[in-house]
Amino acid sequence: MMIVLAGSLDSKIRAKCEERLNSRLLLYLLIYLRLIIIAMNITSLTMVETSLLVAILFGIGVLFYRRFLSGHRGGSSQASGEEKYGLKVNGDKSSEGTWKSTQFEYPKIEPVTTPLRSIKPVTYRPFKWGKYVVAMGLRTMQWNEWIELDQEFERYFKIREERLRVRGERLLKTLPERPGIVGSGEPAAVELLYELAEFLSRRYPDVYRVTRLAPSEGSYGWYGQGQIKDITIVPLNRKFVIGEDDPLKISSLLIQEDFAIMVEGSDGRYYFQAGAVLIAGSWRMEDKLGMALDEIHTSGNVPQYQSKLDSPMARFFTKFPLDKPVARDNYTFQVVPEAKEDALDFAELAWAQTMKGSEDLKISEGQMWLKESYDDEDSKAIGQIQQDVSTPSYPPIGPSTVWLRVERETMRRLPRTGAVIFTIRTYQTRISELAKEPGVPGRIASALRSWPDDVARYKGHEAYEGIVEYLDECHAEQVRVGVYKEEVPFAEQHCLNSWLLRYPSSFKF
Ligand code: HEM
Predict the structure, then answer these.
(1) What is residue 397's predicted lDDT score, i.e. its pLDDT?
(2) CB of 422 shorter than 6 A to ligand 1
(3) Host domain of residue 355
């Protein structure tokens, strides 16, 4: 009886848990409770055996709970920096916007010994079977993994350098102090450059070479070493002397990532005070610089921002400790005409021209159809979308013209200035390549079908949604030849049904 009761309670609560990521704890507790009930109902066990089983289950429950807490706070399973290195992990802050410089000893950075040309791009595949849930989706990031380098480095470098040459200041900028609102982004921009130079020269010693000043009080050098004077990208033979150029420019050329520097204001909100956004593809730094975190997102009509993201993100930024960096992934798809193949930026990495129209339009054309869809409370545009629009026309799609675009984003706090550094690394892969990966075409098709309407519109699905037919065929073929064993979970079946209702002609069996 108790089991039946727990079972029906289970399914109701399970559905709610799928709605809200933060309800994971409830789910764990429920599973745990159910196991205990089952144990207590096994009559063949003696009293001692039952007690032992309950004790073990209790232990598992405690482990789950601790794991939940550490994941929820973006914490790692390792000892915290405070325990391990004697640090003040939360910095020293007497009031909003007044961070006091904090001593911070970094965990040892493990060097990568694989030659750069042999490092393949990481294959992030962040889409899941089943229901799509808008959530922060933060995970713990190991220090070693802050900045990712791979065999694409030189191509990215050339694209980034060319972008700076052509668009210069529009792509990287530091804002001065705005009295009473927020401090300048300048100190954090300088600190970030030293942090990058320290990290990169340790993590990729064959790629970056540094020279240092003699050790001195207040130096930016890690582990008591002298401050870095210059840094050379060895395979490209490019040397950057710190202090001789804009720190943002040097940082932006050292890595494949774009980055935003978020400084806490006197109202406790975090402001985009400096950054280098060279290859974001679908948004321009000039439209967002100076905005607070919430404005950045509401002005872009990020779906369900106010209901699902606003408060958790604000809380996260306020409490974000120095020693627990985090990462998350975003993904979308873009259409790129094949004719671009021989160009340096053949995949429209820097700017998704085909999807968004000209980078110089006040509003990119591809975004204009969003206008009519956003009258609800959840997404009030602050003024970016002002013009009337005609429906954009997209080129024909196929497996080699539709690309997956994954953004791997990281966040960490800087110890001296307390600024939060947000990095964005973009990875692109053609659908024709993804289709060869076991289980992936099925998962992408599932993801495309599971997007709620607002998410689908935001991600510009109308340009590429027809690709699901091809993905279904690839999935069916993978199942047929045994590359992938088909399992259609209940939630996925539900999504298929709703997709069939919406697009009956797109599904053939
Ligand atoms: C906890 C941290 C953050 C979370 C959970 C988050 C979440 C999101 C999500 C869900 C989207 C929509 C993307 C999509 O569905 O394809 C988005 C877009 C965006 N985010 Fe964030 N974000 C975070 C931090 C930041 C920071 C620090 C910046 C600083 C610049 C930023 C800048 C943007 C921009 C510019 C967009 C595109 C907005 C547009 O379309 O105009 N985000 N973010």
Answers:
(1) 93
(2) yes
(3) 97-429
Query: How remote is the CA of residue 246 from the centroid of ligand 1, in Å?
Result: 26
404, β-bridge pairs: 333, 429
Indicate whether this model's pTM tops 0.85. Answer: no
Q: Is the CB of 459 under 6 A from ligand 1?
A: yes
- Among 149, 84, 96, which Cα is nearest to 121's? 149
Record the tokens describing residue 85, joined without a space. 């290195």
- In the block, tokens 């004719």 appear at 339
Q: Which residue owns the Cα nearest ligand 1 atom 40?
A: 300
Q: Which residue's alpha carbon is at the smallest distance from atom 13 of ligand 1?
A: 330
Identify which of 394, 366, 169 has the alpha carbon closest to the alpha carbon of residue 282.
Answer: 366
Among 252, 103, 267, which Cα is nearest to 183's?
Answer: 267
Alpha helices in 301-434 (DSSP H): 310-319, 353-356, 365-368, 431-434
The pLDDT score that the predictor gives to residue 238 is 98
Instruction: Indicate which residue's Cα is closest to atom 41 of ligand 1.
Output: 300
User: With a 6 A CB cut-off, is 297 part of the ligand 1 pocket?
Assistant: yes
Bridge partners, residue 292, by sequence: 271
- Report how far residue 365's alpha carbon sits from residue 357's, in angstroms, rounded to the nearest whole number: 5
Together in a domain, 265 and 343: yes
The helix/strand/coil state of 295 is helix
Give how many domains the chain has, as a whole number. Answer: 3
Q: Find out whether the beta carbon of 157 lies less than 6 Å from any atom of ligand 1.
A: no
> Percentage of the chain with pLDDT > 90?
63
Assigned domain for 424 exists: yes
Environment class of residue 69 by beta-carbon count within 10 Å: exposed (0-12), middle (13-18) or buried (19+)?
A: exposed
Give me 100's structure tokens. Answer: 């006091």
C-beta 203 within 6 A of ligand 1: no
What confidence score (pLDDT) does residue 487 get?
61
- The span from the CA of 307 to the CA of 20, in Å, is 11
In short, whether 313's Cβ falls inside 6 Å of ligand 1 is yes
Ligand 1 proximity of 227 Cβ (cutoff 6 Å):
no
Measured between alpha carbons, how far is 431 from 399 in angstroms, rounded to an integer?
Answer: 5
Q: Is 235 exposed, middle or buried (0-12, 13-18, 19+ CB in 10 A)?
A: middle
Q: Is 91 domain-assigned?
A: no
Cβ of residue 384 lying under 6 Å from some atom of ligand 1? no
> Does residue 86 lie within any of the structural domains?
no
Q: Are residues 360 and 462 part of one domain?
A: no
Q: Which helix (H) or strand (E) holds 478?
A: helix 467-481
CA 203 to chain centre: 21
Running along the chain, 509 residues long, what does each successive block of 10 average in pLDDT? 40 41 58 67 65 70 51 31 34 70 88 97 93 95 97 98 94 97 98 98 98 94 96 98 97 98 97 98 96 97 97 97 96 88 90 92 50 38 39 81 97 97 98 96 95 96 96 95 72 46 37
